[in-house]
Amino acid sequence: MSTADPYSAQAHARAMAGTKVEAMPVVPASAGLVWEETIAAGGYASKPLARGARLKLEDLKGDGCVSMLVFNAERPVERLNVADTLKVQWNGYLGAGKLVLSDMGRVLLSIVEDSAGTHDAFCGASNAASNARKYGDGDNWGSHPNARDRFLIAAGKYGLSAKDVHPCINWFKGVKIAPDGATIPEAGPFPPGRSITFRAEMDIIVVLANCPHVLDPRPDYAVTPVRATAWRGEITPADDPIRNATPEGLRAFLNVEDYYAR
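Request: output the structure for the sequence above.
Response:
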């Protein structure tokens, strides 16, 4: 169909109504959900989530790599701090029962379920230069987009800019640290259907990019779609086992409760 003039362009656009592709948000989300979206290979997404919401990421075909940024939705100057997330929990590896902490000592997310077990809080996001070295190009408009530039697009929808793209956590692709300090990637591919489920402990903005891990040893741009599903949930109660698992974690939850005591 021609789009050479405004009327033809309008007809073409309207003919696309009802078209469905794998990687697109469901609008409105299915009953009971607040977010339902499949993030394409090389794609990105962002969404505000209310305190208590659950967010499930599912690696549909076993080769997803979701890089994540998280912000306090009310005051985005507060955001994920990867270094504090690790050192406060005395642990370099994240999974079920662990916390995602902000730079102000509060819990942004807790991990309530994890069937993947391969995640990375050490290496950060790919960028245009790293992708160009490996694949020949790496910008947003080429065949091999990078996670950092995808973050810029997704975060920009909430008035955030390059200064707000901070160190991230990568889900579904793991990195282990060897005794000699070497980084050992766990790139897969893995069995399809692995998932991780988070609980939002504050009102947050979550920003996601689904691009190959920066240490993926494969020469091809290998990544597959990931589904994001979120639904409303109850705020964490005082007797929650994750909240009370460690003194350090409990203090981070108390900091959240103090914040919302206003």
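The radius of gyration is 19 Å.
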